[in-house]
Amino acid sequence: SATPKISAPVPLDSWVYPALEQLVGQGVLPPTLQGVRPYTRLEVARQLATLPAEAAATLPPVTTAQVQRLRAEFADESRWLVPLRAVTLDYLLQTGQPSRDSGTPAQQWALNYNNDGRDYRDRHNLQLTAAGEARGWEVVLLHLRPQLLAGEGEGLDLTLLTGGAAVALGVVELSVGRQALWWGPGRHGSLLLSNNAPPLDMVRLTNPAPVTLPWLLRYLGPFRFDLFVSRLEEERVVPHPYFGGFRLDIQPAAWLELGAARTVIFGGEGRPAVDAGDFLAIIGGHNLSGDDDTSNQLAALDFSLRLAPLGGAQLYGELGGEDEAGACFSKTAWLTGLYLPRLDAAGRLSLRAEYANLAFRNNGNVWYRHGIYRSGYTYEEHFLGHHVGGDGRDAFGELRLLLPEYAATVIGSLDGEWRGISGAVVERHLQPSLRIEASAAGFDWRLGYAIDVIANVDYVAGQDATSQLFTAGFSRRW
């Protein structure tokens, strides 16, 4: 039978991403563009196929276990109908109260971030998620990921977490539906686009696998682009504005990846009407009228530098501008990180450190705010970019330990957040966490605990509090 040319996306919270990133860092897999996520299942299978069988036989035991698990997950991507690919059930115990931003309506539990905008109730919560997909004519895809939430004192809430339809047009894919995107090299946060907010209903055009451009452009190396347009919710100062974005990624050398991106909030009720040409002009950085500020534009440049002589260390960074002054960024924010994929000879330990600064010269809550779109750079009260928000700073460290003899991974992290930097009182968060993931009896199991020690809650000096999040769950895949 013919081989499908299109496949479902791998969820952004999947174990697949850190596994692939560690294998690339250790030199097991060749470097590939990582600035646009999610990957499709066919793209992951393509990356795994670059590892010859004879090379896999000589890998250390820890690395071999990772490769075997990935190959088992993506062994058969030719099935046309997968009515139930995965079922996930999680119990969550959450205590405390949401943290609010000092300059926008955004608010969320500080421990519950980069989680597709899920809002849990205080105390007990159950979360059931399923996924399935169908393909036809080699190039058409329908995928659904429904979710059922039950919080203490609340009824059942059934929603479509992600899903939609897509068609492959050569190397390009056109999709319509609800999607979560992550742009940039950051893994704890992103200046422009993360899955901190709920997935967006969008029309999207992208090339899911890197391609080489013709003629002299081939010297840019592997190339990816991502273009989307969506509409935000009604309950805003300007109801139903458009939200769109465009990103380019290139890899001019095996050790270097470069990216450029722009996102824009524009239009909406009471604002000038826009058509397709207007959208492209706005994405290009132009205003539609004589006004100086008719849209809320963000732009960013980023890089990822792989240092093979230093054990495959990866240094990465992102520089963003809230507005532009001529051809240059102004009101800048930045993010930088260091990833060490192998701390020991066996390849069990990896380390990530990441720092983000969105407090523009202590000049107030500049980032994620706008004079017209006063609901800010948010969707359903969640920041679309970095969860720390504007006028904030975030320092994060994570250590991963692979225990293949127990089919387990232990993940410890420490996160520090400072919010309202330019204000009279800074709200401070200290968040240690521990998570254990294991596979047994055909199931993936997980157990986690995190605590948030908060000083100066709601920017009131001396008002302190503690929040906690306990999670336990399992997944079954077919």
Q: How would you spell out the order of helices and strands?
A: HEHHHEEEEEEEEEEEEEHEEEEEEEEEEE
Largest sheet geometry: 18 strands, antiparallel, barrel
Task: Tell me the strand percentage band.
Answer: over 45%
Mean pLDDT: 92
Q: Which CATH architecture is right?
A: Beta Barrel
Radius of gyration: 22 Å
Span between termini: 21 Å
Tally of separate helices? 5
> How would you classify the helix and strand content by structural class?
mainly beta
Report on the structure:
By secondary structure, the chain is mainly beta. It has one domain (16-399): Beta Barrel (Porin), CATH 2.40.160. 9% of the residues lie in helices and 48% in strands. The protein contains five helices and 25 strands. A hairpin with a 3-residue loop joins strand 5 and strand 6 (140-151). It is globular. The two termini are 21 Å apart.
Topology:
Blueprint: H1 16-25, E1 36-37, H2 41-49, H3 53-56, H4 61-73, E2 81-95, E3 99-100, E4 107-108, E5 123-136, E6 140-151, E7 156-169, E8 172-179, E9 182-183, E10 200-206, E11 211-212, E12 222-231, E13 242-253, E14 256-266, H5 276-283, E15 296-307, E16 313-325, E17 328-340, E18 349-357, E19 378-379, E20 382-383, E21 392-403, E22 408-419, E23 427-440, E24 443-455, E25 465-477
